[in-house]
Amino acid sequence: MDVGFLRKTFGDRFVEDSSIAALYVHDASFVEGESNVFGVVFPETEGEVVELVRWAIKHKVPLFPQGSATSLSGNAAATARGLVVSFERMTKVEIDPGDGVAVVGPGVRIEELNVELARYGFFFPVDPGSMRSATIGGAIANGAGGMRGAKYGTVKDWVLGLRVVTGRGDVLKVGCKTFKCRNGYDLVRLFVGSEGTLGLITEAVLKLAPVPESAVAVLAYYDDVEPLVEDVVRVRASRIWPLFAEFLDAPTAAVVGLEERDTLFLGVDVNTGAEERVLKRLQSIVRGRVASVAVGWSEAMKLLEPRRRLYSAQVHLAQRGGGVLVIEDVAVPISKLPDAVRGLKKLAEKYGVPLLLGGHVGDGNLHPATWFRKEEGPGKAEKFIREMAELVVGLGGTVSAEHGVGTLKKDLIALELGDAVLTYMRELKKVFDPYNILNPGKIA
Amino acid sequence: MDVGFLRKTFGDRFVEDSSIAALYVHDASFVEGESNVFGVVFPETEGEVVELVRWAIKHKVPLFPQGSATSLSGNAAATARGLVVSFERMTKVEIDPGDGVAVVGPGVRIEELNVELARYGFFFPVDPGSMRSATIGGAIANGAGGMRGAKYGTVKDWVLGLRVVTGRGDVLKVGCKTFKCRNGYDLVRLFVGSEGTLGLITEAVLKLAPVPESAVAVLAYYDDVEPLVEDVVRVRASRIWPLFAEFLDAPTAAVVGLEERDTLFLGVDVNTGAEERVLKRLQSIVRGRVASVAVGWSEAMKLLEPRRRLYSAQVHLAQRGGGVLVIEDVAVPISKLPDAVRGLKKLAEKYGVPLLLGGHVGDGNLHPATWFRKEEGPGKAEKFIREMAELVVGLGGTVSAEHGVGTLKKDLIALELGDAVLTYMRELKKVFDPYNILNPGKIA
């Protein structure tokens, strides 16, 4: 295969050293990448990306696009002999506070963008657990959500326009720079969440939100998950739209340093001056024992910190047990959350697997975590996950709320979608990537 | 052609009488439909829709889906000899306040749904000008926006799942019943705004929003549009996210019964108890002359009423002048609105066409309206619109912010999108409707 082109075009931004390339072939999931890739390239311009795709078409080389590889479903793993394309050098940031938009390169980290935006009183509200390292390009490609999703939804709600290089080597400018447009089919949202299988994102126009004036939050402990979920429903029914409504079950709360009790983190954005009244309303609705309260935007964000520690706590716990961590990502209609929690605990017992439970109650989204010892293999965990998928689909839910499909969920989404939908998805893939060079083997 | 199937399947829900069918061939735009259609059918079940599509494939009969036909770009006009498919009989409404979702048939009117939802403290926040007659199915197919779009976006942000019959006769269940899912490509949003060209919507799962506790609003008059737009930008920069920020230019304000001045309608949802403080903040930011204020959710909505009268006022005015009304739908980045307004006024002078200007400042969306006498024909208006499109695209804007493409914008979106994007759109159409029987001649 002709790597001359790569050497010439990318110079020292083409890394051939297999020991370095090996660092880029996997993501945060337990999917093991293909160790024998051709290397990693770091494009800096859209033109380079176009040339790269044309070269890949010619030589039938799979391209594996990557932001900071924090995906949990194998979305960003290089799973075949090909080339990793890291977007970490494409980090343009242009903020237009008057228009309320930012034009950014795919390699910009969410956290870095928010540091810049804070100067103008704006923020990009989607906050996946990995937001300190996750890139905008990766978040878009994965359709990421986060803890403030109860109010702010997911990435799809905050992308106005994209520049994308398809698997045919075409540059498409889709969407717009205005807050809305209806100029034909919504290709923006077709690329959002497509996990790099339809096109490589080279630029994004993001919609920004004003940082709310203020917020209040409570952390409350419960003896059972049922009243916890009911309380979130009652808050929404009281014409209060939560900013976040996060949950940890008792064992998981203990892991992040809280009491060993089912724990609710409930936040609401409010007007300055309305803090006391809304806090009182929350306290009158919440029947759990309120262990701490927060007043003010930064304080409310701080109250969430134990919840944000969940991922690293899970990693440490799994490692201590010599285990490989598996973080799942299911959602059910909010009212079905108690059934889902009870069902998951029964399944964990049945298969004898460890289980930590936390998630976004406001979205009905749970992240069950389990782990297995490498020498035992994932057998038991896989059986647990399969039955978990059947459980949540039976409850009217989804097997992939915000982490995407990658390689790990390919079998599971079939349970939920049916063959016809998958057939159409495969045909869409062929329109944008007829040579199957863009992140092959993922999604459909 | 075999209409026996239609008679047998739909009985008196197949209307063959050409004088009645003629009422269904056009929408609210000036596009004249094909008077010689085969008739109108009113399906009641998804099964009937599937049979209908299979029959249409066999006989190569175009199907023209329709809600209440309030489209302004010819989206819902029957523009060839075919069959109109009216969804007005599919009016199921199932509300689940605990889960915060509603499952509805495509024929449900937005206003009717909101009357039901009010009992639970929820609402479907997208409010196109036509919301009293517009159906959910039509709003989804057109990707509708509305006056509360400054805060709540457009229909795409409020549809969780869909059941759709494609042009191949397949039933696809896409999306989910939960607040988020990432189960493969986002087919939900591919159907949203596809104007019935990819599939016929038979059911939708909608996300509901809690009705805000309270709101405040001001109506302010300006001598010029520039400070008006600047004030909206300054509000957003003050960490206030407007619920609505609507605009009428001086002649248009007079038409709806206000002073003949550039007029801003600015509303903000607030916590109960915070009304006075936020109102004071708005009054300190707004430099126009505040003519009225509103406190409370219903009162804020009432303050918008003159703005909501715009469409019928335009219709009457055009009719009085013996004219045919044309309502356009452009958007530019917010900061470019003054340039757009000035440019449009110059163009109206240049071509000697009447011009009324109003729109959604919060979204950068203007709805320039003009009219022409039937006997003169649309020549001058079309030239004006063409140059208007060049103007807004030059300002980084879009020729279709929320009304869609239909037949009237097909040439104009090419200015904005480029050939490559249109090529991909045509290929997508072929995946879902290879026989070109679904609303042919629209979009791409």
TrEMBL record, chains A, B:
SUPFAM superfamilies with a match to the protein in the record: FAD-binding/transporter-associated domain-like, FAD-linked oxidases, C-terminal domain
GO molecular function, one term: FAD binding
InterPro entries: FAD-bd_oxidored_4_C, FAD-bd_PCMH, FAD-bd_PCMH-like_sf, FAD-bd_PCMH_sub2, FAD-linked_Oxase-like_C, Oxid_FAD_bind_N, Vanillyl_alc_oxidase_C-sub2
Cofactor field: FAD
The protein's enzyme class: oxidoreductase
Domain of life: Archaea
Keywords associated with the record: FAD, Flavoprotein, Oxidoreductase, Transit peptide
Residue ranges of domain FAD-binding PCMH-type in the record: 33-211
Single biological process term from Gene Ontology: lactate catabolic process
EC number per UniProt: 1.1.2.4
Protein family according to the UniProt entry: Belongs to the FAD-binding oxidoreductase/transferase type 4 family.
UniProt protein name: D-lactate dehydrogenase (cytochrome)
Native source species: Pyrobaculum oguniense (strain DSM 13380 / JCM 10595 / TE7)
